[in-house]
Amino acid sequence: MHKIESRNVNFFYGENQALYDISLSMKENTVTALIGPSGCGKSTYLRLLNRMNDLIDNTRMEGNILIDQNDIYEKSTNVDDLRKNVGMVFQKPNPFPKSIFENVAYGLRVNGIDDKHVIEERVITSIEQVALWDEVKDKLKKSAFELSGGQQQRLCIARALAIQPSVLLMDEPTSALDPISTSKIEELIHELKNQYTIVIVTHNMQQAARVSDNTAFFYMGKLIECDKTKTIFTKPAIQQTEDYITGRFG
Amino acid sequence: MASHFEIELDKLKNVIVKIGNLAESQLSEAVKALLSEPMAEKKEVKRTEEKIDKLDVKIDEICQTIFALQQPVASDLRFIMASMQISNEIERIGDLAISVIKNSKNIKDKHDLIVKFNVAELAKQVEEITLKMNQCFLDRSETTIGEIFVLNNSIKKGTDDTIHNLMNEMKSNSKAVVSGMNLVMVLKHLERISEHCTNIAEHVHFMIKAKIIKHEKFDDKQ
């Protein structure tokens, strides 16, 4: 059974069509990498999975996207609940101007959790999950801005995990980080896969190869090929995919 | 304009072609040494052997650099992986050609033995398979790969039969043992050369079709 299933998805920014007939499924507890040149629609597709594109004026979506068999674009869908279930991490770390502790606790508080013990337990668990605990345990009350870029990004992942989503969307989560921080995030993705379904947009081909189980190649708003990552990077079925991953176009 | 990466790949291809041609000429010297008198010029053979060894190392270095700096994938990755293996196989062909020359020296009444056991025909087939081996790397032709498999099968059967006949000759004529054993060794070297050419055809097949067929039986390969 698929955790996420897109059926014939089209998406428009005003008159401009950004996605064409995308049908793509993802199994639970897998990592799917979305690759393709800039403007190919991979981030647009990613943002459809938690209805982030709803925040952009004059956009339109056709088709169906199902998460746990429920169509997330049905009128009855509660978007807040959807975004609780589908967390997101962005390209640049974006901690709030608050303490390290409060950054992670914030999502819990806005979601109506006010039991101090529950909040404390969730904050600690989330920070431990992203392997940041040893680095911040003695400075939880310090500003999140005092952390390095890599630590800030892991804190943002902890913030997303605290509200216990089942899907995690990552939009180029390491593009602003140094190799050591990148490697920590990649290790983290491997760990998190056991509990979450992860979809990651990346321009780094080697990162897609390292962290994902499946890879989907987008080009000019179309899904050209999706297969096991091992297959995509050793013997892709479509010549366009081969040309892109070997750096011959795009 | 070709990219830096494509220039590196072309360089690798050219070195493989070069080492393949050297192995081919080395085998041709070995066949001359086997079939005719006097022996091939030793210095030239030695020089070619040194060139093959140097190119073998150079290929390893080029591949290592490409792996480290370019992180090749898909067809590029297969080409580089195949190139490393092909280079090893070709280097072995060069060594075996030298062994053919060495063993040929110890065969007395060579002409009679060669005619009696039709060794010239086998040697010709091995030269042909070596030629095809170089050709299949260059033209990436599945037809040539198939021809190599068929030829290797024929060479294997030919050497087995000839060795069997030579054994019988040695049993009945003890004076023929020394020359006979050296000729058996030569035949085994030629058979190994044919096997290396077949391995190369398998590597080229992997390179173009992304399918590993080594260790498959002859009928399955067909």
Q: What does this molecule look like?
A:
The complex is a heterodimer of chains A (250) and B (222). Chain A is built from ten helices and ten strands. In chain A, the strands form two sheets. Chain A has a six-stranded mixed sheet with strand order 6-7-8-3-9-10, with helices on both faces. In chain A, strands 2-1-4-5 form a four-stranded antiparallel sheet, covered by helices on one side. The mean pLDDT of chain A is 94. Chain A has helices at 42-48, 79-85, 100-110, 116-129, 133-136, 149-162, 179-192, 205-211, 229-234, 239-245, and strands at residues 2-13, 16-27, 31-35, 59-67, 70-71, 86-89, 167-171, 197-201, 214-219, 222-228. Chain A is globular and about 55 Å long. By secondary structure, chain A is of the alpha/beta class. In chain A, helix 7 links the parallel strand 7 and strand 8 (197-201). Chain A has a single domain, classed as P-loop containing nucleotide triphosphate hydrolases (Rossmann fold, 3-Layer(aba) Sandwich), CATH 3.40.50. In chain A, 36% of the residues lie in helices and 27% in strands. Chain B has one domain (4-221): Phosphate transport system protein phou homolog 2, domain 2 (Methane Monooxygenase Hydroxylase, Chain G, domain 1, Up-down Bundle). In chain B, 85% of the residues lie in helices and 0% in strands. Chain B has eight helices and no strands. Chain B has helices at 4-35, 42-70, 74-105, 110-116, 119-139, 142-172, 177-209, 218-221. In chain B, helix 5 runs antiparallel to helix 6 (142-172) and helix 5 (119-139) packs parallel to helix 7. The model of chain B has no long low-confidence stretch (mean pLDDT 92). Chain A binds chain B through residues 205-206, 209, 233-236, 242, 245-247, and chain B through 3, 5, 71-78, 210.
